[in-house]
């Protein structure tokens, strides 16, 4: 009896040991692969168990959960093998400048990762979109690399993220915000830090980026290429303490809503093109550091409200066309230290009064109109600069305040005896020679430090080093020789204790500690050179030893598993070869096929594995719609392009040759008002079409929003024109011509500029030469838009699309569905029209959101054209090219430029841009097929 129990227990124990051993072996092999690709010197990576005192490795339950290899001179690339460390929750490879190349897409496989820190490395390429799948990520710091391309919108999926630092890279494009199914940074409600400065970001700051749901404390967008206004919505984020938009091309007015930011201590808006009246920021009573310099504000006298900012320490308002005299009340602000008002028109007498701040250190009035300076008998130790003022230029005075132009800080020399060190060594503040560890400390919040007193920060850093038992003797900070109010930089020298140099491990520990402090305070550290003294760390090699598991039968089991895997692999390859032989796309060359002129961009043939990767294994999160064709998934290509991938369900699949014929048909469609085909997949019995993703959803969704996000009349005309141009191209310029057969508001998409694009060609039909006037075919379409002539005769012509377009025109002016509450919109309009009345008497059914604040010029002509399109006989309807001409004439009467890519309302009440959010039920890529109920639609008993 005991043996019956013991044997299963032993077998279970053996299986558990085998599983653990396999996990350890797997992690070991991954780390060995990483080490081989890095070619770096990693101390103490010896033996076959990484959980046994390997440098920088932490384990839990015999699995690697943390890697911290900061500043140890790694070179090479980060291998995609990193994605196999499935239990990893923290990865820090910061300050290894030799780490280059792209960040691998496999980083998205680290599903348990909470902290990813790659500061000060040499990574290049795009930040992979897969980073948005790290749902547990809380800390993401990729600053000070060479990442390029746009910010991945998928970062918006990181709902637990509190720290986002992408500063000091080469990122470009716009700031992503959510739209429809596309995520964006506005979704990061837990984020405390947006550090995006020192990049090449362009476009406007989206108003949607900020909301009252956010908990941000730092917003740093300085030194980019941003344009447009500072959004009013910024004032909703009342938790903010730091706002930096300096060194951009922002214009417009400074929003009054900034006065809601009562916790902001640092506001930097300098070096932009802001205009209008100089903003009154009285409500921002926590301000310590204010810089509005070098903008285009209206000329004004010196603002008196500044004296209400009782916490102000530094004021910068240079080159702002300020005139008048400076009230001495300004200098009485208790904590005021620096006043920089150069390049203005301030005049009269400079008088700092008797109640000036005891903290006052600098008054810079270079290039103003100061005529006199009222000095006290015992002048305070304040640096005053009045160069290029009448008091100096007209009187010829040689006072210090006329000649002292340099405001940079010079660190006082120590009292050490010089010349006692070798040429390559540096003398420490404690008069010891050595090789210091160097770097640069950059302030994020400039009010955090007293610029002329580095001693406090030096003492603070020493306390941190000592508490971490680091062998540090002294710290020396020197303010940047550049303008301290522009660079905010300190040079750092950290000297070793009891030796001339730091070991590699201690340098790594110092950089790790400084990086940790940077993540919790107002500065950012970047390591300096790496030749600061000899390196005595030996070059440890990693021995390739696989754990031998002394369990009976386990070795044989592994061999059998390997053989089974190899056999399955061989069988799979044979099957794939068999499928490829029947694949009509195997040797397909789009430029030599029937798909049109070779110079047009042909669709790309994607493999199933590629599509699987782009859609995150067809995840539910990427499922954005469904229809008669099948499901639609959002995907992102390696180029960063977002696409919509239609995956055919079993009953919708065609024969191989028929699918190829459809691809060739769609390959001929190239027009700015048509959604373009990017590629396709025909593999493993899959049929998938890859379309461009249109960000602003469908016209159907746009018409749902009656008040907040209404479409103006002029915009609706432009949408109608875009859709008409797309159809005219299909009918008259495609070769052979194409009938869409399913025109409806759900198949009209709106791009980022709200230009219309006709989409979904799943029901489209080519008109071959022998078809001539019509095609006899099974009736397909969508109820409410279906041409009654086509339905009764089953003869399809281009005029069937014209009828559907006429229904679409009525939908544009009423915002009603074609069939709503049993009423058919065509019959309702036809029975209501009274041409003797204004707007044809259609006031009751016109969408009220297009009437407010604007005149509907051309409305009657638009209705007349719609009714022409809706004539019962197809031969009586206009062609789509004639429809295009008519709508163009209407737009000219409204005064719109037809060459513009965007739609700007002529009414001031419709100047805002709208963002349309699509529901999954009515996604732009879904299909709605008509059934037998179509007969009821056109029956004589249809209620009006």
UniProtKB/TrEMBL annotation:
Domain Protein kinase: 618-891
EC number(s) reported in the record: 2.7.11.1
Main location: membrane
Topology relative to the membrane: Single-pass type I membrane protein
InterPro entries according to UniProt: Kinase-like_dom_sf (IPR011009), Leu-rich_rpt (IPR001611), LRR_dom_sf (IPR032675), Prot_kinase_dom (IPR000719), Protein_kinase_ATP_BS (IPR017441), Ser-Thr/Tyr_kinase_cat_dom (IPR001245), Ser/Thr_kinase_AS (IPR008271)
Membrane-crossing residue ranges in chain numbering: 544-569
Sample GO molecular function, one term: protein serine/threonine kinase activity
GO CC terms in record: membrane
CDD domains: STKc_IRAK (cd14066)
Subcellular location per the Swiss-Prot or TrEMBL entry: Membrane
Signal peptide: 1-21
Binding site for ATP: 646
Keywords: ATP-binding, Glycoprotein, Kinase, Leucine-rich repeat, Membrane, Nucleotide-binding, Receptor, Repeat, Serine/threonine-protein kinase, Signal, Transferase, Transmembrane, Transmembrane helix
PROSITE patterns: PROTEIN_KINASE_ATP, PROTEIN_KINASE_DOM, PROTEIN_KINASE_ST
Name used for this protein in its record: non-specific serine/threonine protein kinase
Organism, as annotated: Phaseolus vulgaris (Kidney bean)
